[in-house]
Amino acid sequence: MRMDFATVGGIVAGFFVVGLAIAMGGAVGVFFNAPSFLIVIGGAVSATVLRFPIDQVLAALQTGARIAFLDHQREPRDILEEVRTLANIARRQGPMALERASVSDPFLARGKQMIADGLPTEHLREQLIRERELEIKRLVEGEKIFRAIGEAAPAFGMIGTIVGLVKMLWTMDDPSTIGPSMAIALLTTLYGALVAYVVALPIADKLAMKFEAQETNLSLIIDGLCQVSDRKSPDAITDMLIIYLPEKARGPFAPSPALGA
Fold first, then answer.
1. Which helix (H) or strand (E) holds 192?
2. Which residues lie below 8 Å from residue 230, measured CB to CB, with a gap of 6+?
């Protein structure tokens, strides 16, 4: 797996820009406030746990972070090349030879092992579709969890602001408490906005985008492996699966024009 530098770079850039602006104004230390941080992070996590089962939250956070930060999505054309290779092996050496074939995608590897084990095509399709649905479900759950955090963080930022204002108004007779109370009031809003709009919501959007790409890849693999199981030729499989490729990526797989045309 490779690091998704777009996700990492975007988050780092967002915090860097805010941090640079703070540093240019001086007094960096005043922007670190433990009570404000506790209100936003603790509140957002608590609200998310209330909305979803705790085991689902933990699994979704792990899956979501892995998918968002690790760019392991493969191009459909690369998957099609591997499917063509498997089709060649199955036609020339038989399905059992697929057991020794090396592929880079775990889902494709499970499918070709099922073919090597002699699973009928209709059962192969049912099993792979079931696995695809579970994989997509995990991605959707991860998106929902991060989006819930992104929705809760600004709300708890406002709650922290109210808490700080109440403390400030309650102790107006003591000028020494006005500063710390006002810091809580303003910094919780800042923390809530940063958590939501620099981290949680962008990751949720990235998961939604990768969900669509993953669904396309898994569907391509399922259709391709079923054709391999039926001993179709690589060219026939390509003609069927080329629709999964973007228009600009179809060139190497497009049929050559007939001679004399």
1. helix 178-194
2. 121
